[in-house]
Amino acid sequence: MFFSHIIYNIKSGKDMSKDIKNKKLIKYLYKFQNAENINHIKSILNKNLLYFSSPKKFNDPFDCSTLFSFEGANEDDFRTFYYNIIKFNEPSFDDVRIKQEVESIINSGDHKNHEKLLCARNDVLTFIEPEIKKKGILCLSEKNDDILMWSHYGNKHSGICLEFDKKIIHRTDFTCRRIN
Are residues 118 and 159 located together in one domain of the fold? Predict the structure, then answer.
């Protein structure tokens, strides 16, 4: 079981200040929950089931948005960008052919053409947006005493905070990435 114990409120939580100062010592990750959804909590505690939310259901419309810019991009950035587009759009092309196509784009200067960049960007968004909507995301915190987390996700400080062993979370079959 990767659930360690429940912290019912900030005052009953253990002091994590040493762990937070030295990231290597962080042993636990925290999930803030609304205590009213008892069935969801029972699933976590009794069945070891975690819910991975769809980005479509996030309260911040900009979370997982696919806005990106070419500002500050260098030639290698454009090569990587066009390499991936061509690889996706032309699966029959081998690596040599893809690189030839990329160099053709770079040498022609089309990679700096605003209209062509918008078209390429839209091609990418057409692919990425539906893929993102298929994914589920589990949001965990390294801190159990974050006022903002308690306010938004701990039901205005009346919810609960679940503690999970970080080692066990990282041994599961899903990808874990730290987001700042």
Answer: no
Amino acid 97: pLDDT: 97
Q: How far apart are CA 45 and CA 133, in angstroms?
A: 27
**Residue 10 pLDDT > 90, yes or no?**
no
Beta bridge partner(s), residue 148: none
Residue 116 in any domain: the answer is: yes
Measured distance CA(40)–CA(59) in Å, rounded: 19
- Region 68-72: mean pLDDT is 78
Residue 63 has pLDDT above 80, yes or no: no
Q: What is the pTM of this model?
A: 0.57
Contacts of 44 (CB under 8 A, 6+ apart): 3, 31, 50, 162
pLDDT, position 175: 60
Which residues form the domain of 20? 3-53+137-170
User: Do residue 81 and residue 31 come from a single domain?
Assistant: no
> What is the DSSP code string of 107-159?
HHTGGG-HHHHHHHHHHHHHHHHHHHHH--B---BS-S--HHHHHHTTTTTTS
